[in-house]
Amino acid sequence: MSQEKQGGKMAVIGDRESVMLFRVLGVQTVAAETAEETARAIHRLARDGCSIIYLTEALARLVPEELARYQARTCPAIIPIPGSRGSDGFGKEQIQSNIYKAVGMDLQ
């Protein structure tokens, strides 16, 4: 089933190693290494109607302003994921922060 038939497009932004598997699975990928490349990729994917953008934690740490800009919007959802070297905890921190904002308490 195509991404569009499942309810919207999704993409992954990360270093080449991290996005390789997603590309093999047919997911749109963008290789990026710098904050500037990452920000451009996020904006382009958002303009192209991407509803979910998975972003490696290492790159997410480089673009806090972009994450904040899109956090107030319903689309695209930008979700930090571990990269090829594993998790550094940033994705978990983001989820916990969002839960705290939503319900007013830490659910650890």
Overview of the molecule:
With about 110 residues, this protein is of the alpha/beta class. It has a single domain, classed as ATPase, V1 complex, subunit F (Rossmann fold, 3-Layer(aba) Sandwich). It contains five helices and four strands, in the order E-H-E-H-E-H-H-E-H. It has a four-stranded parallel β-sheet, with helices on both faces. Helix 1 links the parallel strand 1 and strand 2. It is globular, with a radius of gyration of 14 Å. The model is unreliable at about 1-5 (pLDDT under 50).
Task: Offer a quick outline of the entry.
By secondary structure, the protein is of the alpha/beta class. It is built from five helices and four strands.
Write the layout of secondary structure elements.
Blueprint: E1 9-14, H1 16-24, E2 28-31, H2 35-47, E3 50-56, H3 57-62, H4 64-71, E4 77-81, H5 90-103
* Residue share in β-strands: 15-25%
Q: pLDDT under 50 segments (min length 5)?
A: 1-7
Rounded to an integer, what's the Rg over CA atoms?
14 Å
Which fold does the CATH topology refer to? Answer: Rossmann fold
CATH superfamily: ATPase, V1 complex, subunit F
Which of globular, elongated, flat, extended, rod-shaped describes the shape?
globular
CATH class: Alpha Beta
Count of discrete domains: 1
Order of strands, main sheet, comes to 2-1-3-4
Q: Count up the helices.
A: 5
Q: What's the SSE pattern?
A: EHEHEHHEH
Percentage of residues assigned to helices:
40-55%
- Average pLDDT, all residues: 80
Q: Structural class, from helix and strand content?
A: alpha/beta
Main sheet?
A: 4 strands, parallel
- What is the first-to-last residue Cα distance? 36 Å
Number of strands: 4
CATH architecture designation: 3-Layer(aba) Sandwich
